[in-house]
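INFO batch 0412 | record 1 of 1 | parsing
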Amino acid sequence: MGTNVAILTDSTASIPEQLLEELNIRTVAYYIHRGQEVLRDLVTIQRDEFLNWLMTAKFLPTTASPGPGDYFEAYEKLAKEGHNDIVSIHMTSKGSGAFQAALLAQSMMQEQNPDIHIEVIDTRNVSLCQGWMAIEAARAALAGLKLEEVADKVKTMIPVTHMIQTADTLKYLYMGGRIGRAKQMVGTLLNIKPLIGMEDGEIVPVGMARSRGQAYQSMVDKVEDKVGKSRIKIAYVHAGARQEVEKLKKAVESRLNAVESMIAELSPALAVHTGPGTAGLCYFPTSY
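INFO prediction complete | emitting tokens
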């Protein structure tokens, strides 16, 4: 019987499988609709296969967040394993219905089993920024912290956890309707690399560069402006661009104080919107 707080998040948190296993983080899979085909993110479709297809795709698939039933099923499973306390960590509610669906599942669970306590959190973020919150929450849970303490840890991370990424094109974000306030950058010249971030749960433009190399230097500048020489934990995220994030990692770690870092590939449900070739980072300052 598990007694510690259970951590649940979405497949779009893109946490490397090894960490999911080590930290016992559960995930609920997003849906990808490819024509008539319904795929489950990282369950019935994996990264490489999906990206290879996406590069030649004539149409863009659509994505959908899990429904209340999916989250309810996941909560029920955790409850049966003996977890009375669950922290449920989700992508920004401004870009997805996951948070709302999880809230509905939480109230369904409350009615059916009032002894199960679930804290549902809107991270106002995506990808490994959401992922870091789940990772740190799981570490806190394994260290024996209680539900409120684990949830508070996540909440303190929300305002200080940031993403910056670049891609060769914003076409995929635009086509998928997830462009947010970066819409004015869509028409920029082909040789410009747009930099986007997230502010209060919405995609925003944060700059542009003439080349990938300049984009990476600009990312380092922006992180340094925010954190100086403070200790940070950082994830380098990409969609089929491992060599590019290796370059980004080198640029970052020659100047910043990264006490923990990882390279992670976006899940297919996120790669739909960023497109292949995306490279970026998700980081937060830390005192340990």
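INFO post-check: The radius of gyration is 18 Å.
INFO record closed
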